Amino acid sequence: MKYLSKNWLKIFVPALIAFSTLSVASGFADYQPAPAYEETTEASSYVTMRDGVKLAISVVRPAKNGKPVDGKFPVIWHHTLSISREARDGTGGFISALHAIPTLAKHGYVVVQVARRGNGQSFGVMRGYHDRNEAFDAYEMTQWLAEQPWSDGNVGVYGCSNTGDAAMHAMSVQPPALKAVFAGCFSWHKFDAFRRGAIFAQWGTGPARTIEDDMAIPPVDGDEDKKLLEQAAQEHQLATPLLQMWSELPFRDSWSKTMGSRFWSEGSVADYKDQVARSGIPLYIMGGWFDELRDQGLITLLNVPGSRAIFGPWQHCRNDDFPLLDEIHRFFDTHLKGLETGLNQEPPLHYFVMEGSENGHWASSSTWPVEGVDFKAFAMTDSGLKTDSQAGGTLDQQFDVKFEQNCPGEKISSRSQPCSIHEEGIHITSEPLLHAIEVTGHPKVTVNLSTNRNDANLFAYLEDVAPDGSVTVITEGRLKASMRKTDSAPWLMPEGTPWHRWYKEDQLLLTANEPVELTFAMMPTSRVFAANHKIQVTFTGSDYRERLRDDAGHAQTIRLTSPSSGTAVLMLPVAGN
Protein backbone atom coordinates (compact mmCIF):
# COMPACT_ATOMS: atom_id res chain seq x y z
CA MET A 1 0.00 0.00 0.00
CA LYS A 2 1.06 3.57 -0.54
CA TYR A 3 0.37 6.69 1.52
CA LEU A 4 3.72 6.02 3.21
CA SER A 5 5.63 9.03 1.86
CA LYS A 6 7.88 10.69 4.43
CA ASN A 7 6.73 14.02 2.99
CA TRP A 8 3.14 13.31 4.04
CA LEU A 9 3.19 15.48 7.15
CA LYS A 10 4.92 18.38 5.43
CA ILE A 11 2.42 18.31 2.59
CA PHE A 12 -0.85 17.73 4.37
CA VAL A 13 -0.83 19.23 7.85
CA PRO A 14 -0.70 22.84 6.53
CA ALA A 15 -3.59 21.94 4.25
CA LEU A 16 -5.89 20.53 6.91
CA ILE A 17 -8.03 23.63 7.24
CA ALA A 18 -8.12 24.54 3.56
CA PHE A 19 -9.27 21.15 2.31
CA SER A 20 -11.71 20.13 5.04
CA THR A 21 -15.36 19.48 4.35
CA LEU A 22 -15.93 21.28 7.64
CA SER A 23 -13.33 23.42 9.33
CA VAL A 24 -10.92 21.32 11.40
CA ALA A 25 -10.34 23.10 14.69
CA SER A 26 -6.90 24.25 15.76
CA GLY A 27 -5.06 21.50 17.56
CA PHE A 28 -5.87 18.58 15.28
CA ALA A 29 -2.56 17.08 14.15
CA ASP A 30 -0.76 19.95 15.88
CA TYR A 31 -0.77 19.42 19.65
CA GLN A 32 2.74 19.55 21.09
CA PRO A 33 2.89 21.00 24.61
CA ALA A 34 6.35 21.08 26.12
CA PRO A 35 7.17 18.14 28.41
CA ALA A 36 7.17 18.92 32.12
CA TYR A 37 9.84 16.32 32.89
CA GLU A 38 13.02 15.22 31.15
CA GLU A 39 13.27 11.75 32.67
CA THR A 40 11.17 8.69 33.40
CA THR A 41 11.66 5.58 35.50
CA GLU A 42 10.23 2.12 34.96
CA ALA A 43 9.57 -0.66 37.47
CA SER A 44 7.68 -3.94 37.19
CA SER A 45 5.93 -6.19 39.68
CA TYR A 46 2.88 -8.42 40.16
CA VAL A 47 -0.64 -7.45 41.24
CA THR A 48 -2.92 -10.17 42.64
CA MET A 49 -6.45 -10.37 41.26
CA ARG A 50 -9.63 -11.40 43.10
CA ASP A 51 -9.11 -15.11 42.32
CA GLY A 52 -5.43 -15.18 43.27
CA VAL A 53 -4.06 -14.89 39.72
CA LYS A 54 -1.03 -12.60 39.55
CA LEU A 55 -0.85 -10.13 36.67
CA ALA A 56 2.45 -8.55 35.66
CA ILE A 57 2.56 -4.77 35.44
CA SER A 58 5.20 -2.29 34.31
CA VAL A 59 4.90 1.28 35.60
CA VAL A 60 6.55 4.27 33.88
CA ARG A 61 6.60 7.44 36.02
CA PRO A 62 7.92 10.98 35.64
CA ALA A 63 11.39 11.24 37.17
CA LYS A 64 14.11 13.65 38.21
CA ASN A 65 17.72 12.71 38.88
CA GLY A 66 16.89 9.07 38.30
CA LYS A 67 14.10 8.88 40.87
CA PRO A 68 10.30 9.05 40.49
CA VAL A 69 8.99 12.51 41.33
CA ASP A 70 6.60 12.91 44.21
CA GLY A 71 3.01 13.78 43.46
CA LYS A 72 -0.15 12.30 42.01
CA PHE A 73 -0.72 11.95 38.28
CA PRO A 74 -3.42 10.60 35.97
CA VAL A 75 -2.79 7.02 34.85
CA ILE A 76 -2.95 5.61 31.31
CA TRP A 77 -2.80 1.85 31.00
CA HIS A 78 -2.64 -0.83 28.32
CA HIS A 79 -4.20 -4.30 28.77
CA THR A 80 -1.68 -6.01 26.56
CA LEU A 81 -0.02 -9.38 25.92
CA SER A 82 3.33 -8.66 27.61
CA ILE A 83 4.76 -5.85 29.73
CA SER A 84 7.80 -5.86 27.44
CA ARG A 85 7.52 -3.08 24.88
CA GLU A 86 9.43 -1.46 22.07
CA ALA A 87 9.69 2.34 22.35
CA ARG A 88 9.38 4.27 19.08
CA ASP A 89 9.11 7.91 18.20
CA GLY A 90 5.43 7.96 17.24
CA THR A 91 5.92 9.15 13.66
CA GLY A 92 6.35 5.94 11.69
CA GLY A 93 6.31 2.17 11.79
CA PHE A 94 3.79 -0.41 12.87
CA ILE A 95 1.51 0.76 15.73
CA SER A 96 4.17 3.37 16.44
CA ALA A 97 1.89 5.78 18.26
CA LEU A 98 0.89 3.12 20.76
CA HIS A 99 4.48 2.05 21.31
CA ALA A 100 5.33 5.68 22.07
CA ILE A 101 2.56 6.32 24.62
CA PRO A 102 4.90 5.63 27.59
CA THR A 103 6.74 8.81 26.59
CA LEU A 104 3.69 10.71 27.85
CA ALA A 105 5.11 10.15 31.34
CA LYS A 106 7.29 13.17 30.55
CA HIS A 107 4.06 15.16 30.28
CA GLY A 108 2.87 14.26 33.76
CA TYR A 109 1.26 10.83 33.34
CA VAL A 110 1.90 7.44 34.84
CA VAL A 111 1.82 4.90 31.99
CA VAL A 112 1.24 1.25 32.87
CA GLN A 113 1.49 -1.96 30.83
CA VAL A 114 -0.54 -4.90 32.20
CA ALA A 115 -0.04 -8.37 30.71
CA ARG A 116 -3.43 -10.06 30.41
CA ARG A 117 -3.97 -13.28 32.33
CA GLY A 118 -2.41 -16.23 30.55
CA ASN A 119 -0.05 -14.00 28.57
CA GLY A 120 3.45 -12.60 28.83
CA GLN A 121 4.78 -12.49 32.38
CA SER A 122 1.33 -12.87 33.94
CA PHE A 123 0.02 -16.04 35.52
CA GLY A 124 -3.29 -17.68 34.73
CA VAL A 125 -4.93 -19.25 31.70
CA MET A 126 -6.28 -17.39 28.68
CA ARG A 127 -9.87 -18.52 28.20
CA GLY A 128 -11.07 -17.80 24.69
CA TYR A 129 -10.52 -14.38 23.17
CA HIS A 130 -11.57 -11.49 25.45
CA ASP A 131 -13.75 -13.43 27.86
CA ARG A 132 -15.43 -11.80 30.86
CA ASN A 133 -12.59 -12.84 33.17
CA GLU A 134 -10.39 -10.35 31.33
CA ALA A 135 -13.08 -7.68 31.48
CA PHE A 136 -13.40 -8.12 35.25
CA ASP A 137 -9.60 -7.99 35.52
CA ALA A 138 -9.80 -4.63 33.74
CA TYR A 139 -12.32 -3.37 36.28
CA GLU A 140 -10.18 -4.50 39.20
CA MET A 141 -6.95 -3.16 37.69
CA THR A 142 -8.48 0.22 36.85
CA GLN A 143 -9.67 0.68 40.41
CA TRP A 144 -6.34 -0.55 41.82
CA LEU A 145 -4.42 1.94 39.69
CA ALA A 146 -6.71 4.76 40.82
CA GLU A 147 -5.88 4.01 44.45
CA GLN A 148 -2.08 4.01 44.19
CA PRO A 149 -0.12 6.78 45.95
CA TRP A 150 1.19 8.12 42.62
CA SER A 151 -2.31 8.25 41.07
CA ASP A 152 -4.70 11.20 41.19
CA GLY A 153 -7.63 8.80 40.66
CA ASN A 154 -8.21 9.57 36.96
CA VAL A 155 -7.53 6.57 34.74
CA GLY A 156 -7.54 6.07 30.97
CA VAL A 157 -7.03 2.91 28.93
CA TYR A 158 -5.75 2.45 25.38
CA GLY A 159 -5.16 -0.29 22.84
CA CYS A 160 -5.28 -1.32 19.18
CA SER A 161 -6.28 -4.58 17.49
CA ASN A 162 -6.32 -7.30 20.17
CA THR A 163 -5.66 -4.69 22.86
CA GLY A 164 -8.22 -2.34 21.30
CA ASP A 165 -10.84 -5.00 22.02
CA ALA A 166 -9.46 -5.25 25.56
CA ALA A 167 -9.87 -1.49 26.00
CA MET A 168 -13.49 -1.69 24.84
CA HIS A 169 -14.20 -4.55 27.24
CA ALA A 170 -12.77 -2.44 30.06
CA MET A 171 -15.33 0.19 29.11
CA SER A 172 -18.11 -2.41 29.19
CA VAL A 173 -17.64 -3.11 32.93
CA GLN A 174 -17.82 0.61 33.79
CA PRO A 175 -15.05 1.05 36.39
CA PRO A 176 -15.81 4.29 38.32
CA ALA A 177 -12.23 5.53 37.89
CA LEU A 178 -12.16 5.01 34.10
CA LYS A 179 -12.46 8.46 32.51
CA ALA A 180 -11.27 7.95 28.90
CA VAL A 181 -10.73 5.15 26.35
CA PHE A 182 -8.64 5.29 23.16
CA ALA A 183 -9.24 2.17 21.03
CA GLY A 184 -8.18 1.33 17.48
CA CYS A 185 -8.93 -1.40 14.93
CA PHE A 186 -11.13 -3.50 17.22
CA SER A 187 -14.31 -5.52 16.71
CA TRP A 188 -17.77 -4.28 17.64
CA HIS A 189 -19.19 -7.77 17.17
CA LYS A 190 -16.62 -10.52 16.78
CA PHE A 191 -18.69 -12.53 14.30
CA ASP A 192 -18.83 -9.56 11.93
CA ALA A 193 -15.05 -9.24 12.20
CA PHE A 194 -13.82 -12.84 12.27
CA ARG A 195 -16.51 -14.22 9.93
CA ARG A 196 -17.46 -11.17 7.91
CA GLY A 197 -19.90 -12.33 5.27
CA ALA A 198 -20.16 -15.58 7.29
CA ILE A 199 -16.75 -16.48 5.81
CA PHE A 200 -13.93 -17.54 8.15
CA ALA A 201 -11.07 -15.01 8.11
CA GLN A 202 -7.38 -15.97 8.00
CA TRP A 203 -6.42 -14.40 11.34
CA GLY A 204 -7.37 -14.27 15.02
CA THR A 205 -6.00 -17.61 16.19
CA GLY A 206 -3.11 -16.22 18.23
CA PRO A 207 -1.31 -15.71 20.45
CA ALA A 208 -0.26 -19.36 20.60
CA ARG A 209 3.07 -19.37 22.40
CA THR A 210 5.37 -22.14 23.51
CA ILE A 211 7.11 -22.25 26.88
CA GLU A 212 10.31 -21.37 25.02
CA ASP A 213 8.64 -18.27 23.56
CA ASP A 214 7.54 -17.10 26.99
CA MET A 215 10.91 -17.81 28.58
CA ALA A 216 12.59 -15.54 26.01
CA ILE A 217 10.86 -12.39 27.29
CA PRO A 218 12.20 -10.23 30.15
CA PRO A 219 10.85 -11.16 33.61
CA VAL A 220 9.45 -8.75 36.17
CA ASP A 221 11.88 -7.04 38.52
CA GLY A 222 13.19 -9.42 41.19
CA ASP A 223 12.64 -12.53 39.06
CA GLU A 224 16.01 -12.46 37.34
CA ASP A 225 16.30 -16.26 37.60
CA LYS A 226 12.94 -16.48 35.77
CA LYS A 227 11.46 -18.98 38.19
CA LEU A 228 8.17 -17.08 38.35
CA LEU A 229 8.20 -16.59 34.59
CA GLU A 230 8.61 -20.33 34.11
CA GLN A 231 5.66 -21.04 36.40
CA ALA A 232 3.54 -18.56 34.45
CA ALA A 233 4.65 -20.06 31.13
CA GLN A 234 3.57 -23.51 32.28
CA GLU A 235 0.09 -22.20 33.13
CA HIS A 236 -0.19 -20.54 29.72
CA GLN A 237 -0.10 -23.92 27.98
CA LEU A 238 -3.65 -24.63 29.21
CA ALA A 239 -5.04 -21.79 27.08
CA THR A 240 -8.06 -22.33 24.84
CA PRO A 241 -7.05 -23.63 21.37
CA LEU A 242 -8.45 -20.69 19.43
CA LEU A 243 -8.69 -22.33 16.01
CA GLN A 244 -10.66 -25.18 17.60
CA MET A 245 -12.94 -22.69 19.35
CA TRP A 246 -13.63 -20.60 16.23
CA SER A 247 -14.24 -23.76 14.19
CA GLU A 248 -17.06 -24.66 16.59
CA LEU A 249 -18.79 -21.35 15.86
CA PRO A 250 -19.93 -21.18 12.20
CA PHE A 251 -23.04 -19.14 13.07
CA ARG A 252 -23.58 -16.08 15.23
CA ASP A 253 -25.68 -18.13 17.68
CA SER A 254 -23.38 -21.19 17.72
CA TRP A 255 -22.53 -22.86 21.04
CA SER A 256 -18.87 -23.61 21.78
CA LYS A 257 -18.29 -26.86 23.65
CA THR A 258 -14.74 -25.74 24.33
CA MET A 259 -15.92 -22.56 26.03
CA GLY A 260 -19.25 -23.69 27.42
CA SER A 261 -20.91 -20.57 26.02
CA ARG A 262 -22.16 -18.83 22.89
CA PHE A 263 -18.81 -17.16 22.70
CA TRP A 264 -19.59 -14.74 19.87
CA SER A 265 -21.87 -13.07 22.42
CA GLU A 266 -19.63 -13.42 25.46
CA GLY A 267 -16.61 -11.97 23.67
CA SER A 268 -18.33 -9.16 21.72
CA VAL A 269 -18.61 -5.58 22.94
CA ALA A 270 -21.86 -5.26 20.99
CA ASP A 271 -23.57 -7.56 23.47
CA TYR A 272 -22.74 -5.04 26.23
CA LYS A 273 -23.73 -2.00 24.19
CA ASP A 274 -26.17 -0.76 26.83
CA GLN A 275 -23.49 -0.87 29.53
CA VAL A 276 -21.02 0.90 27.24
CA ALA A 277 -23.56 3.60 26.39
CA ARG A 278 -24.53 4.07 30.04
CA SER A 279 -20.93 4.41 31.15
CA GLY A 280 -20.64 7.90 29.68
CA ILE A 281 -16.90 7.31 29.31
CA PRO A 282 -15.38 9.39 26.47
CA LEU A 283 -14.22 7.14 23.63
CA TYR A 284 -11.82 7.97 20.78
CA ILE A 285 -11.85 5.41 17.94
CA MET A 286 -8.98 5.02 15.48
CA GLY A 287 -9.25 3.17 12.17
CA GLY A 288 -7.70 2.94 8.71
CA TRP A 289 -9.19 2.73 5.24
CA PHE A 290 -7.01 -0.33 4.51
CA ASP A 291 -7.84 -2.19 7.71
CA GLU A 292 -10.01 -5.30 7.84
CA LEU A 293 -11.92 -3.92 10.86
CA ARG A 294 -12.74 -0.40 9.67
CA ASP A 295 -16.49 -0.97 9.51
CA GLN A 296 -16.46 -2.05 13.17
CA GLY A 297 -15.09 1.27 14.36
CA LEU A 298 -17.65 3.31 12.43
CA ILE A 299 -20.51 1.16 13.71
CA THR A 300 -19.18 1.74 17.23
CA LEU A 301 -19.17 5.49 16.55
CA LEU A 302 -22.91 5.29 15.81
CA ASN A 303 -23.70 3.29 18.93
CA VAL A 304 -21.64 4.96 21.67
CA PRO A 305 -23.01 8.42 22.50
CA GLY A 306 -20.35 11.10 22.67
CA SER A 307 -17.66 9.03 20.96
CA ARG A 308 -15.33 10.42 18.31
CA ALA A 309 -13.17 8.85 15.61
CA ILE A 310 -10.24 9.34 13.26
CA PHE A 311 -9.88 7.34 10.03
CA GLY A 312 -6.74 7.74 7.95
CA PRO A 313 -5.19 6.11 4.85
CA TRP A 314 -3.67 3.40 7.03
CA GLN A 315 -3.38 -0.33 7.38
CA HIS A 316 -4.09 -2.22 10.59
CA CYS A 317 -3.00 -0.20 13.65
CA ARG A 318 -0.67 2.02 11.63
CA ASN A 319 -0.48 5.78 11.54
CA ASP A 320 2.47 6.15 9.12
CA ASP A 321 3.63 9.80 9.15
CA PHE A 322 0.54 11.20 10.83
CA PRO A 323 1.26 12.48 14.39
CA LEU A 324 -1.28 10.20 16.05
CA LEU A 325 0.57 10.30 19.37
CA ASP A 326 -0.16 14.04 19.55
CA GLU A 327 -3.86 13.37 19.04
CA ILE A 328 -3.87 10.65 21.72
CA HIS A 329 -2.08 13.06 24.06
CA ARG A 330 -4.67 15.76 23.35
CA PHE A 331 -7.52 13.34 24.08
CA PHE A 332 -6.12 12.28 27.44
CA ASP A 333 -5.21 15.86 28.39
CA THR A 334 -8.84 16.79 27.73
CA HIS A 335 -10.45 14.04 29.77
CA LEU A 336 -7.88 13.09 32.41
CA LYS A 337 -6.45 16.54 33.15
CA GLY A 338 -9.43 18.70 32.26
CA LEU A 339 -7.38 20.90 29.93
CA GLU A 340 -8.92 22.97 27.15
CA THR A 341 -7.39 21.53 23.99
CA GLY A 342 -10.01 22.43 21.40
CA LEU A 343 -10.98 18.78 21.03
CA ASN A 344 -14.55 19.19 22.23
CA GLN A 345 -15.13 22.10 19.83
CA GLU A 346 -14.43 19.90 16.81
CA PRO A 347 -16.79 17.61 14.89
CA PRO A 348 -16.56 14.06 16.24
CA LEU A 349 -15.17 12.53 13.05
CA HIS A 350 -11.94 13.30 11.19
CA TYR A 351 -11.42 11.24 8.04
CA PHE A 352 -8.97 11.25 5.16
CA VAL A 353 -10.33 11.54 1.61
CA MET A 354 -7.92 9.62 -0.63
CA GLU A 355 -7.03 11.07 -4.03
CA GLY A 356 -4.86 8.78 -6.11
CA SER A 357 -2.07 6.68 -4.64
CA GLU A 358 -0.42 9.27 -2.38
CA ASN A 359 -2.56 12.40 -2.28
CA GLY A 360 -5.67 13.41 -0.40
CA HIS A 361 -7.04 15.71 2.26
CA TRP A 362 -8.51 15.60 5.74
CA ALA A 363 -12.19 16.33 6.24
CA SER A 364 -14.48 16.43 9.25
CA SER A 365 -18.10 15.54 9.87
CA SER A 366 -20.68 15.65 12.63
CA THR A 367 -22.33 12.49 11.28
CA TRP A 368 -21.63 9.12 9.71
CA PRO A 369 -22.60 8.68 6.95
CA VAL A 370 -21.44 12.21 6.23
CA GLU A 371 -23.91 14.86 5.15
CA GLY A 372 -24.30 15.46 1.43
CA VAL A 373 -23.72 11.82 0.48
CA ASP A 374 -26.38 9.98 -1.53
CA PHE A 375 -26.40 6.50 -3.04
CA LYS A 376 -25.99 6.47 -6.81
CA ALA A 377 -26.90 3.31 -8.73
CA PHE A 378 -24.52 1.83 -11.32
CA ALA A 379 -25.92 -0.99 -13.43
CA MET A 380 -23.67 -4.05 -13.77
CA THR A 381 -24.12 -5.42 -17.30
CA ASP A 382 -22.32 -7.62 -19.81
CA SER A 383 -21.26 -4.46 -21.64
CA GLY A 384 -19.81 -2.82 -18.55
CA LEU A 385 -20.70 -0.69 -15.56
CA LYS A 386 -23.29 1.89 -16.50
CA THR A 387 -23.45 5.20 -14.68
CA ASP A 388 -27.20 5.31 -15.20
CA SER A 389 -29.01 2.31 -13.70
CA GLN A 390 -31.80 2.77 -16.26
CA ALA A 391 -29.43 2.54 -19.22
CA GLY A 392 -30.53 -1.00 -19.99
CA GLY A 393 -28.54 -4.17 -20.37
CA THR A 394 -28.38 -7.34 -18.35
CA LEU A 395 -25.68 -9.36 -16.65
CA ASP A 396 -25.02 -13.04 -17.41
CA GLN A 397 -21.43 -14.15 -16.84
CA GLN A 398 -19.80 -17.13 -15.24
CA PHE A 399 -16.34 -18.15 -14.06
CA ASP A 400 -14.52 -21.10 -12.57
CA VAL A 401 -13.37 -20.54 -9.00
CA LYS A 402 -9.63 -20.69 -8.42
CA PHE A 403 -9.12 -21.46 -4.74
CA GLU A 404 -5.33 -21.21 -4.69
CA GLN A 405 -4.71 -17.54 -5.30
CA ASN A 406 -2.49 -14.91 -3.79
CA CYS A 407 -1.17 -11.41 -4.41
CA PRO A 408 1.44 -11.68 -7.18
CA GLY A 409 4.84 -10.65 -5.83
CA GLU A 410 3.35 -9.11 -2.70
CA LYS A 411 3.14 -10.09 0.94
CA ILE A 412 0.02 -8.46 2.38
CA SER A 413 -1.40 -8.98 5.84
CA SER A 414 -4.63 -10.93 6.16
CA ARG A 415 -5.96 -7.91 8.08
CA SER A 416 -5.26 -5.46 5.25
CA GLN A 417 -6.83 -4.41 1.97
CA PRO A 418 -6.36 -7.12 -0.69
CA CYS A 419 -4.55 -6.78 -3.98
CA SER A 420 -6.19 -6.84 -7.40
CA ILE A 421 -6.39 -10.33 -8.94
CA HIS A 422 -6.42 -9.55 -12.65
CA GLU A 423 -6.79 -13.07 -14.01
CA GLU A 424 -9.57 -14.29 -11.73
CA GLY A 425 -13.35 -13.97 -11.72
CA ILE A 426 -15.17 -11.39 -13.80
CA HIS A 427 -14.53 -7.66 -14.19
CA ILE A 428 -17.27 -5.11 -14.89
CA THR A 429 -15.79 -1.77 -15.91
CA SER A 430 -17.21 1.68 -16.60
CA GLU A 431 -16.27 4.07 -19.36
CA PRO A 432 -13.73 6.75 -18.36
CA LEU A 433 -15.34 9.21 -15.96
CA LEU A 434 -16.10 12.64 -17.40
CA HIS A 435 -15.47 14.25 -14.03
CA ALA A 436 -14.14 13.22 -10.64
CA ILE A 437 -16.49 11.72 -8.06
CA GLU A 438 -15.96 11.21 -4.34
CA VAL A 439 -17.16 7.95 -2.80
CA THR A 440 -17.44 8.20 1.00
CA GLY A 441 -19.36 5.53 2.88
CA HIS A 442 -20.37 1.87 2.52
CA PRO A 443 -20.91 0.71 -1.11
CA LYS A 444 -23.21 -2.25 -1.66
CA VAL A 445 -24.05 -4.70 -4.43
CA THR A 446 -27.11 -6.68 -5.51
CA VAL A 447 -26.70 -9.59 -7.90
CA ASN A 448 -28.07 -13.07 -8.60
CA LEU A 449 -25.77 -16.05 -8.05
CA SER A 450 -26.06 -19.68 -9.07
CA THR A 451 -23.50 -22.46 -8.81
CA ASN A 452 -23.04 -26.18 -9.37
CA ARG A 453 -22.75 -26.77 -5.60
CA ASN A 454 -25.02 -26.12 -2.61
CA ASP A 455 -23.11 -23.04 -1.46
CA ALA A 456 -20.62 -20.45 -2.63
CA ASN A 457 -18.55 -17.60 -1.30
CA LEU A 458 -18.76 -14.40 -3.32
CA PHE A 459 -16.17 -11.62 -3.05
CA ALA A 460 -16.76 -8.21 -4.64
CA TYR A 461 -13.95 -5.67 -5.10
CA LEU A 462 -14.42 -2.00 -5.95
CA GLU A 463 -11.44 -0.90 -8.04
CA ASP A 464 -9.99 2.24 -9.61
CA VAL A 465 -8.58 1.72 -13.12
CA ALA A 466 -6.12 4.44 -14.11
CA PRO A 467 -5.64 5.60 -17.72
CA ASP A 468 -2.43 3.54 -17.89
CA GLY A 469 -4.41 0.39 -17.02
CA SER A 470 -3.13 -0.01 -13.48
CA VAL A 471 -5.76 -1.23 -11.01
CA THR A 472 -6.09 -0.27 -7.33
CA VAL A 473 -8.49 -2.05 -4.97
CA ILE A 474 -10.43 0.61 -3.05
CA THR A 475 -12.67 -1.59 -0.92
CA GLU A 476 -14.38 -4.96 -0.94
CA GLY A 477 -17.26 -7.02 0.42
CA ARG A 478 -18.04 -10.72 0.81
CA LEU A 479 -20.97 -13.03 1.47
CA LYS A 480 -21.58 -16.76 1.80
CA ALA A 481 -24.56 -17.38 -0.48
CA SER A 482 -26.38 -19.66 1.96
CA MET A 483 -26.30 -16.86 4.56
CA ARG A 484 -27.89 -14.25 2.29
CA LYS A 485 -30.98 -13.56 4.43
CA THR A 486 -31.12 -9.96 5.67
CA ASP A 487 -32.61 -8.76 8.94
CA SER A 488 -32.97 -5.72 11.19
CA ALA A 489 -29.82 -5.07 13.19
CA PRO A 490 -30.05 -4.98 17.01
CA TRP A 491 -27.84 -1.88 17.00
CA LEU A 492 -27.54 1.21 14.84
CA MET A 493 -26.11 0.68 11.36
CA PRO A 494 -25.12 3.22 8.69
CA GLU A 495 -28.24 4.20 6.77
CA GLY A 496 -28.84 1.96 3.78
CA THR A 497 -26.39 -0.74 4.88
CA PRO A 498 -27.81 -4.30 4.77
CA TRP A 499 -27.34 -6.43 7.90
CA HIS A 500 -27.33 -10.22 8.18
CA ARG A 501 -28.18 -12.01 11.42
CA TRP A 502 -26.29 -15.18 10.41
CA TYR A 503 -28.05 -17.51 12.85
CA LYS A 504 -28.11 -21.23 12.09
CA GLU A 505 -31.80 -21.06 11.21
CA ASP A 506 -31.00 -18.37 8.62
CA GLN A 507 -28.94 -20.75 6.50
CA LEU A 508 -30.57 -21.41 3.12
CA LEU A 509 -28.49 -23.86 1.10
CA LEU A 510 -28.61 -23.52 -2.66
CA THR A 511 -30.09 -25.87 -5.22
CA ALA A 512 -27.52 -26.54 -7.92
CA ASN A 513 -27.73 -24.06 -10.81
CA GLU A 514 -30.77 -22.22 -9.40
CA PRO A 515 -30.17 -18.48 -8.88
CA VAL A 516 -30.58 -16.67 -5.57
CA GLU A 517 -30.39 -12.93 -4.98
CA LEU A 518 -27.55 -11.56 -2.84
CA THR A 519 -27.34 -8.06 -1.38
CA PHE A 520 -24.37 -7.12 0.77
CA ALA A 521 -22.27 -4.16 1.81
CA MET A 522 -18.66 -3.44 1.05
CA MET A 523 -16.30 -2.04 3.65
CA PRO A 524 -16.42 1.74 4.10
CA THR A 525 -14.01 3.99 2.25
CA SER A 526 -13.41 7.60 1.27
CA ARG A 527 -11.88 7.90 -2.18
CA VAL A 528 -11.97 10.28 -5.14
CA PHE A 529 -12.15 8.59 -8.54
CA ALA A 530 -10.41 11.06 -10.83
CA ALA A 531 -11.67 12.18 -14.22
CA ASN A 532 -10.63 9.80 -17.02
CA HIS A 533 -10.33 6.93 -14.53
CA LYS A 534 -12.70 3.97 -14.66
CA ILE A 535 -14.72 2.36 -11.87
CA GLN A 536 -14.50 -1.42 -11.86
CA VAL A 537 -16.21 -4.19 -9.90
CA THR A 538 -14.46 -7.55 -9.77
CA PHE A 539 -16.16 -10.71 -8.50
CA THR A 540 -14.30 -13.84 -7.40
CA GLY A 541 -15.23 -16.99 -5.52
CA SER A 542 -12.17 -17.09 -3.25
CA ASP A 543 -9.78 -14.74 -1.47
CA TYR A 544 -6.33 -15.48 -0.07
CA ARG A 545 -7.43 -14.01 3.31
CA GLU A 546 -10.07 -16.75 3.66
CA ARG A 547 -9.12 -19.52 6.13
CA LEU A 548 -11.20 -22.48 4.92
CA ARG A 549 -10.62 -22.22 1.19
CA ASP A 550 -11.72 -25.32 -0.67
CA ASP A 551 -8.42 -26.08 -2.37
CA ALA A 552 -8.91 -29.85 -2.48
CA GLY A 553 -9.70 -29.84 -6.16
CA HIS A 554 -13.50 -29.69 -6.00
CA ALA A 555 -14.44 -27.80 -9.14
CA GLN A 556 -16.89 -24.94 -8.76
CA THR A 557 -18.43 -22.62 -11.30
CA ILE A 558 -20.25 -19.43 -10.31
CA ARG A 559 -22.73 -17.69 -12.59
CA LEU A 560 -23.77 -14.09 -11.91
CA THR A 561 -26.93 -12.71 -13.49
CA SER A 562 -29.33 -9.83 -13.14
CA PRO A 563 -31.96 -10.33 -10.41
CA SER A 564 -35.49 -11.15 -11.49
CA SER A 565 -36.48 -7.84 -9.91
CA GLY A 566 -34.47 -5.90 -12.47
CA THR A 567 -30.82 -4.89 -12.65
CA ALA A 568 -27.64 -6.11 -11.00
CA VAL A 569 -26.60 -2.96 -9.17
CA LEU A 570 -23.57 -1.40 -7.54
CA MET A 571 -24.69 1.35 -5.16
CA LEU A 572 -22.02 3.94 -4.45
CA PRO A 573 -22.29 6.60 -1.70
CA VAL A 574 -21.37 9.66 -3.74
CA ALA A 575 -20.59 13.00 -2.13
CA GLY A 576 -22.00 16.21 -3.61
CA ASN A 577 -23.28 16.40 -7.16
UniProtKB/TrEMBL annotation:
<feature type="signal peptide">
    <location>
        <begin position="1"/>
        <end position="25"/>
    </location>
</feature>
<dbReference type="InterPro" id="IPR005674">
    <property type="entry name" value="CocE/Ser_esterase"/>
</dbReference>
<feature type="domain" description="Xaa-Pro dipeptidyl-peptidase C-terminal">
    <location>
        <begin position="329"/>
        <end position="570"/>
    </location>
</feature>
<dbReference type="InterPro" id="IPR029058">
    <property type="entry name" value="AB_hydrolase_fold"/>
</dbReference>
<dbReference type="Pfam" id="PF08530">
    <property type="entry name" value="PepX_C"/>
</dbReference>
<dbReference type="Pfam" id="PF02129">
    <property type="entry name" value="Peptidase_S15"/>
</dbReference>
<protein>
    <submittedName>
        <fullName>Hydrolase</fullName>
    </submittedName>
</protein>
<dbReference type="InterPro" id="IPR000383">
    <property type="entry name" value="Xaa-Pro-like_dom"/>
</dbReference>
<keyword id="KW-0378">Hydrolase</keyword>
<dbReference type="GO" id="GO:0008239">
    <property type="term" value="F:dipeptidyl-peptidase activity"/>
</dbReference>
<keyword id="KW-0732">Signal</keyword>
<dbReference type="InterPro" id="IPR008979">
    <property type="entry name" value="Galactose-bd-like_sf"/>
</dbReference>
<dbReference type="InterPro" id="IPR013736">
    <property type="entry name" value="Xaa-Pro_dipept_C"/>
</dbReference>
